[in-house]
Amino acid sequence: MDNVLSFIEQDYDDFTMDILEYSTSIINELQQRFPTWQLFTFMKILNSREWPKESQELLWFGDNELGNVLKYYECPNFHNNIQLSAIFDINKCREEWAMFKMIITNNFASNDIEVILLLLIQDYIDVFLNIIKLIQIVYCIPFSSVECEHGFSRQNKIKTKDRNSLATNMLDLLMHVFLKGPESKEFNYNRAYTIWSSQKRRTGFK
Length: 206
Description:
two-stranded antiparallel ribbon; 10 helices; 64% helix; extended
């Protein structure tokens, strides 16, 4: 009986170690595959929805995270062995941060970041030039493959076997219509037909 229990305990220990090694291996692979994942967490401070409500807390909020984000962009960028100029001024970005939080809290607290960014570009580009550039960079990063998958799905519906000779530029235009165009009930079909029929002579049309 003792031998059986000893065997079970040993087997259980081996099983536990296998799980631990497997889990550790998965974590290490993910960290190597996505080395900047923590950077995305720091970037959340640029979304005013994440900010504290108390003004005293807001005063110092995000300083460390901003420092980590800026540290990433301090590294020089190279393309074809040529060093590219800095996208924005790191030091001025730090200086703009406190005033930026105050302006957003007092004027745009109820807006989503997409709306806030447009208003900032329109009215505050000269005041928060560097912070705005940083936000534009952050919101250019695709955090999901949904849009890409949606585009491929739409492409496959447009370019079928019967339309396999469709040129790339026309495919691009059609995808823009399907992905970004107006609702069909809002589309002016008469005007579209007029433009289409005037492009060149159409056989069978008068």
